[in-house]
Amino acid sequence: MPGPGPHMLYTLSTGQALMSISNGRFGPHHCLVYAINAFFGPDIGSFSEWLTSVFGLGHSVGYTMESLVHHPFYYVIILGLPLSWFYSWVSRVLLHRRLLDSVSGVPLSRRQCFLLVSAGSLSHFFLDHLFEENGQSSMYKWILSTGWWSGRAPITPDTVAVISFLSFCLIGGFTYINRCVWIISL
Fold first, then answer.
1. Contact indicator for 177, 19 with CB cutoff of 8 Å
2. DSSP letter string over 25-45?
């Protein structure tokens, strides 16, 4: 399974491509919601598992969340509606504060957000399955033959901080570029 970087780069580049060929019907709001759901969406369970283990809240709570949500369809069934309401509200706030541009000047609807959550989930698992190869990749064989990981893969707080910082920079850069393009076009 690829790390967060490939998920973010794949979905932002796909979103940029859709923005360029859709004549404004797929805008920065769409791209941002799509990318966030493909990047962090289904892996929110893994993050909650790590978070509960760090704060001593019990491994079983995080593991249950991870097993429920890390699925292409269960993610949408369980979290699709609440996230679509949240993203619709965020879209309205970003548009009102002029942080992102919308060609139509209208924020994303809940239906659009729900479809973007679904598309992000499917894109996430598309990329996961591209790299999984049924355990036949050279890295998986190396791990299985050497026993490099005992139990779950180690996740250190430093790694989480670096990946979080880089992801915020990528999303912030995307927002800055799209905002600057909008300001220049005035």
1. no
2. SS-HHHHHHHHHHHHTTTTHH
Whether pTM exceeds 0.85: no
Q: CB burial class (10 A; 0-12, 13-18, 19+) of residue 47?
A: middle
Give residue for tokens 């729900």: 114
- Of residues 73 and 154, more confidence is placed in 73
Interior/surface letters 68-104, b for 16+ CB within 10 angstroms, e for the rest? ebbebebbbeebbeebbeebbebbeebbeeeebbbee
Kindly tell me the number of DSSP H helices and DSSP E strands found in the chain. Answer: 8, 0
Amino acid letter at 97?
Answer: R
* Span 125-182, pLDDT tens digits: 877 766 665 555 565 555 555 555 556 656 677 777 877 787 787 777 777 776 655 4
Instruction: For residue 78, give its domain range.
Output: 4-185
CB hemisphere CA count around 51 (13 angstroms): 12
Number of folded domains that form the chain: 1
Cα 121 to chain centroid, rounded: 8
Contacts of 34 (CB under 8 A, 6+ apart): 11, 14, 15, 116, 119, 120, 123
